């Protein structure tokens, strides 16, 4: 038995080496679809962390039928891209699908007002999106599709509108998406890809604050332009920011980057989801498991960071033993993640965990707040600040905490639940964020 496998393996390896030696495949990825890449490469300029859409965040009926989701449906979604690019391509994800995701047609357009969460296309701006020269593609379960390069110019912080039509929908209910879009999407029966206004197509149009299937936009950019992947939870996903205003803290840092002439262009990849934990699945897969897909497999990543741990600490029991254990595990996991990311040649940093204590005079008790959990937060933060495993440390705790009571958010940065910052808090993170780490 054994020897058969060895033979089979060595035969396969010979085959692979022969293929590599005799007919190297053209690297169309790096060439943006033509023969001269002029030192350009693909770089992520927008992402949303793919996750299994929970039942409550699936589209409403009738778009969620008896056997399939999005049958005969056009989904119109908007995203804000981080950098200028004359040429783009899309990634559509079926990472959590258990059946094929059959995409019938896709197009990109500019919006009328350059605003997120709108359903009206700027006439004449629409470009068809193709996949390996086909207008449709069937993406296997757990798979991904990268579009062909699209000659479509976007500007930094502009809104890109993406239409996707699914003729048959996706079988079953394992749908990949990003529920915490904080951006309005529109769904309507029939193929309306590229039509000016989805809203004129009758009562069947519904709006919904989630993203489905779209997982990245990439620009074809100079070799010095790179991306920066942020692994995070709801604080990075933007809970407490304004729907359709793109004022999550990474959006505000992107704006700061774009206004700074001294640093190279960096595309920020927001790879965060509400409720996400480093060690356990729940709302999205745990961070240890998703690093490969959400950081290492992204285009042009030169920098990455993690800002997580609050949900690990807050969901663990608050007794001293449970908290000592979760603290140990978080520290090991952060070391593990740092090793993997840095092995890929990526500069890796971490942000300290911001406070979640209940202020003494508050009429609302933050469920995570407890003396023992505060001990764990301080312990993990001391590790992040002092251990030296990270290439850079961002002290978000120091930015957001109340100097008089370091276990609570500064009142002016508190969205009200004593855990999530408000927009002023997100702006404070961006104001603090040291861009020289990109030099
Ligand atoms: C190929 O791409 C390069 C870089 O984007 C561009 O300068 C050149 O004009 C393109 N050539 C053709 C034939 O499209
Ligand atoms: C999707 O495409 C696959 C392969 O082409 C096919 O077997 C499957 O039936 C299709 N699914 C739907 C829902 O049409
Ligand atoms: C798709 O939806 C449109 C609009 O409701 C309807 O007219 C059409 O018959 C539907 N097509 C199929 C194949 O169900
Ligand atoms: C807590 O007090 C604030 C005013 O200080 C009030 O606006 C809010 O509604 C109160 N919340 C609850 C849960 O009572």
List keywords for this structure.
439 residues, alpha+beta, Rossmann fold, six-stranded antiparallel sheet, five-stranded parallel sheet, 10 helices, 25% helix, globular, disordered N terminus, binds 2-acetamido-2-deoxy-beta-D-glucopyranose
Give a quick rundown of the structure:
With 439 residues, the chain is an alpha+beta fold. Helices cover 25% and strands 26% of the residues. The chain has ten helices and 24 strands.
Reading off the top of the CATH hierarchy, the class of the largest domain is best stated as Alpha Beta
Overall SS class: alpha+beta
Number of strands: 24
- Using the CA coordinates, give the radius of gyration: 23 Å
| 3D shape | globular
Largest sheet: 6 strands, antiparallel
CATH topology of the largest domain: Rossmann fold
Distance between the termini: 55 Å
Give the % helix: 25-40%
User: Ligands bound here?
Assistant: 2-acetamido-2-deoxy-beta-D-glucopyranose
Please state the second-level CATH architecture of the largest domain: 3-Layer(aba) Sandwich
Unreliable residue stretches = 1-28
> What is the average of the pLDDT values?
92
Overview of this structure, please?
This protein is of the alpha+beta class and 439 residues long. It has two domains: 2-24 and 51-216, no CATH class; 222-438, SGNH hydrolase (Rossmann fold, 3-Layer(aba) Sandwich). It is 25% helix and 26% strand. The chain has ten helices and 24 strands. It has helices at 2-22, 28-31, 234-237, 249-259, 287-296, 310-315, 320-343, 371-386, 396-400, 423-432; strands at 40-47, 51-52, 68-69, 73-80, 88-93, 101-103, 105-110, 127-129, 137-139, 144-146, 159-166, 170-171, 176-178, 185-189, 206-208, 211-212, 214-222, 226-232, 266-272, 301-307, 347-351, 392-394, 401-402, 405-409. It has a six-stranded antiparallel β-sheet with strand order 8-7-11-4-14-15, with no helix packed on it. A five-stranded parallel β-sheet has the order 19-18-20-21-22, with helices on both faces. The protein has a four-stranded antiparallel β-sheet with strand order 1-17-5-10. α8 links the parallel β21 (347-351) and β22 (392-394). α4 packs across α10 (423-432) and α7 packs parallel to α8 (371-386). The chain is globular, with a radius of gyration of 23 Å. Residues 1-28 have low confidence and may be disordered. It binds 2-acetamido-2-deoxy-beta-D-glucopyranose (4 copies). One 2-acetamido-2-deoxy-beta-D-glucopyranose (NAG) binds next to loops. One 2-acetamido-2-deoxy-beta-D-glucopyranose binds next to loops.
